[in-house]
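One thing: can you check what follows?
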Amino acid sequence: MFGAIIGDIVGSRFEWHNHRSKRFKLFTADCFFTDDTVMTLAVAQAILEAAGDYTNLGQLTIKQMQKIGRRYPDCGYGGMFATWMFSDQPQPYNSFGNGAAMRVSACGFAATSLQEALSLAQKVTEVTHNHPEGIKGAQATAAAVFLARTGHDQNAIRAYIEQNYYPLTKTIDEIRPTYRFNETCQETVPQAITAFLEADSFEDALRNAISIGGDSDTVAAITGGIAEAAFDIPSDIRHKALPYLDDSLRKILINFENTFPKTP
């Protein structure tokens, strides 16, 4: 899950100023965490609170998204989500925005089976993004995380995603020249997964993700969550990213990592 947060932080300065190259500094003073990080940790906290009983995970997700999210009102929420987050009676709004996928990596780390990863992803997603394409994007991401975490190689993950979710016909070099900012799952998740599939390390995956442009922090968050599951996060990258989080967010991260270590 920390991989998604690192992707968000690295991509934050490129969201409105795309950088179509793999050559750049990962961390600078211009980097920051966005709503992608806040909501990733809200989902993680909901899973922690469920303590293995996921029958009420949807309600716990609403609770934690509103509780944690309201502490950071200016971190970049979309308009409809911001309205939902501050509502006294929050209802799903048929969204297929890529927010469904950027926040879901904790499901892939907490799950004990592929089917459970898909179930958790649906439960935490349908409270807002209940459009079929929103749930599809979240489930594809959670599945990729789970498969990577449980030792499936990139070819196996590609085959699963293509069979069940998206065609992955273009390479990163083919995507890069024409890819533009897009906030839908359909036009973010396949590209983010491809960035992982063409990588040979965690850092390489992030560089692939940033290099295509678009909604850079979210693309890199989705890619980073999967890449963490497949590769180790280098200690220097971890140590450089942690200080971008405040104590409250860091506490959730560490608690989740201790409860759900990468190795199943």
Summary: The mean pLDDT is 97. DSSP finds 15 helices and no strands in the chain. The chain has one domain: 2-15+32-259.
